[in-house]
Write a structure and sequence with these properties.
5-stranded antiparallel β-sheet; 6-stranded mixed β-sheet; 17 strands; alpha+beta; flat; 60% helix
Length: 667
Amino acid sequence: MQMGFVMKKVFTYLSTFSVCLFCIWLVSLQLDSLIYHYYPSVSILSRGEEVTYEEVSDALTNLAEKENSLIAKTITETDDSGRTTTSYDVFGKGELPQGLVKADRLVASQANLAENYYVVKGNLDIKVVENVLQSLGLVDSYIYRPTLLNSLSLFLGRGAPSLGLIIFILTNLALTVVGQIVYLRSAGIEMLSGVRSWQIASRFLRVDGRDIALATGGALVFGLIAILILGWPMVYYRFVAIGIAFYACLLFFLSLSTSIGFMIALNISQLQKLIKGALPLKAIFAILLVGQCLAVCIISIGASRTLTYVGVLHTLTIGEKAWQERQDVFSLSLNREAFIADEAMAQQQRMAWSHVILESYAKNNVMLVQHHLRHNTIKEHTIIESSKEIPLERVLYVTPNYIQSEGGLYDFNQLEEIKQLGKGEIALLLPKSLQNDASVYQAYFEDMVGKLLADGEGSISLHSNVYYISDEKRWFIYNHTPINYEQFLQAPLIVVLSPESFEETSYFWENALPDFVFFKDKEMLEQLLDKYNLQNTIGSLLSSKQHYNTLRKNVQLEILMTLSPTILGIFTSILLFNTMNLLYFETFKREIAIKRIAGMGFIELHGSYLGEQVGSALIGMGLAMFMTKSVIVSLGVVVALLINSWMLLNNQAKREEKIQLSVLNGR
């Protein structure tokens, strides 16, 4: 009995501190966004009519001082290395909360107005702040009021923490119930001496409550010290504390539930059977069934997701050398300032982007490489004849300089023809295997691209020339998007477009900019952005290889986060099987000894017990296959767990046999 409760006590402390460390880790991954989930805020999603910084500053300062509050606006800056720093413009009297950095006045006056505005001090209603901003012309807005549920969703919304939490709960429940079942005999003796069942159950609850309180207090202090050492804003401590407190509440709820169940079991059981050690066999195997099913499901889900991300990482790694050779290519991201509610202003901005693209292209400073890999994700095809389909994930829209840089044409004269594309002309590069159907593809792309150039309003008549490329060549597609992770396309269908083909007010370039438009000369681009007053619409201007490296790091992090609960699940399953085996031999020690003396072998002795384990594992495998859609992974997990169970049972059986032989020999 003591062993079970000591194990549970140790587990309570270890798991609570593990939750604390995990919460700190998750906070470190979301440092720039956590403040959004702490203070009420109004997000300005796009620019409206002309409004100046001075107007916004004066209005918000007057409002904050009138309401004795403090308003802060986010200012995000990205340096050349890709590192993002966040500071805050302050409106009203007072200091920012500890850890939040105040922005330089000059930087604040030049920053975007389409940002998040927080009430960081005082009782000012965020709706009033929104009304003031809307009265100034910033009408496209969204209010967010953080709640406890929102804070919990930051942790439980991710797969890995949820799996880890389930594992902790499962282990705690198993240790609790097993310990109580073993204690039933002693409880029966206590009840004969006049102790009430509720007194015995409440003793368990008091011990658990004390351990949970001490573990929670220690974890909260540890979390506070960690936040202070790391130099993070104290507002982040709330999220660590919420995670720890939530786990403590779960543990206490489990303890309360099992204590009530234990009290009921004492009341309905016959004391004579309890005192003789007749333990409830059905309860034991119910624990085994539930534990094994959940272990199979959790480990299968974790293993399946880990293998998926390992495959993704391998796909990304294939493109590493190609990215290394193209480090001089840059791409940009747009911020909220780029999204304008007023149509006239939006049209002017589209014209400005068109001029930037045309002038950059004239100096060979911009390249379009637009893939359609999202269609690979949803397995979408376009039927162009009853017997033919176009796999849209293999279609590329590019500018002529992409063909020049990647090669792939059989004739130099063909490249020169493509470079001379003018308005109303496109080039179509098809794999040689599609040569017999070239006219069908030619007609389809002329119509589709004609609609694209017209922004969906009718169609522009186009003329296309068809060229042929090798089916074997793999084309690097400059992909740094999380839509799909492929780095090369084999036998693509390439549509070559000149920027001159687009209307000045086309939506195409704004939509393509973040992921598919690449620049070479950063200084020239910055001059053009300044020339056409677009610098405030830029979120970041980074090397495309930096975007690729960030994507790789995110995938590596997902592997780590998915692998950790999987490994934890394996250790938990071993703990469960060990505990069940100890309970099994404790319960049926006499019967097993008699059968062994009678000459029964391992299978005859433990066949029924193993059969229960196999049955529960198969149920778990069925659930895992339904959830993961992976037969091989689920089957592999079940086989591994059954082998582990067999080995643990065999080792325990040998130990028990040695003990019994020692007793029989008088040693």
